[in-house]
Amino acid sequence: MQVFSLAIIEDQPSIREVLSEYLGHQPEFRCEVIVDSIEAFLAQLEASPGLSPDLVLCDIGLPGLTGIEGLPFIRARLPEAQVLMLSVFTDAEQVYQALQAGAVGYLVKNTPLVQLKEHLLQVAAGGSPMSPAVARHVVQAFQRLAKAPAATQTTQEPLTSRELEIVQCIEDGLSYKLIATRLFISVDTVRNHIRAVYRKLQINSKGQLMARAIRRQS
What is the model's pLDDT at position 128? Predict the structure, then answer.
């Protein structure tokens, strides 16, 4: 069994303790860094040159540099690390800013610990996990844009029917495995479609348009 080194960046002591306690006792993970800020994380990397976590679970609402502001610094120091954002926010700007800054996935903080572990393993396997709450916003945003004038639609690559189907399955709370079973496809194919959805979100040069569309749907 492969063991992945993990860093946790979370400023709330109670949440940080729960995450480190649970994930630290999972045989698939080795918690190498547990800190309360981006600055503390970068300082620890500086103090320990050999430190190189495979996965970084990072809160967005941090003191000092936010998780999104800190992402470029993490990516510069750890280009091979996969960063998964964890936040109470599900609004469009937060999601898109995190993805554009280099995050591979975005989950809300009420994600059950068992699912969080599964999502981290998905990230380690090359996946891009998405919470049901985030999936709901994605579906609403693309549905809104699909109804927009043709001139507006050209600024955004549309989701395929299969991609939309998969995102809606995530919104329904299905795991990748259950989605694969329901749609008669492989789990790897599910992961590839989710990566494509994130890619389409990131290439949008008019992210505020999508953000406004999502807010109107809230």
Answer: 79
pTM: 0.75
Shared domain for 78 and 11, answered yes or no, is yes
User: What is the extent of the structural domain holding 153?
Assistant: 131-218
Of 33-37, 66-70, 187-191, least confident by mean pLDDT is: 187-191
Decide if pLDDT at 65 tops 90: yes
- Tokens representing 124 are 């380690």
How many domains does the chain fold into?
Answer: 2
H-helix segments, 125-206: 132-146, 150-153, 161-171, 176-183, 187-202
Paired strand residues for 51: none
Closest to 6 measured CA to CA, from 25, 45, 36, 34: 34
Query: Are 107 and 137 part of one and the same domain?
Result: no
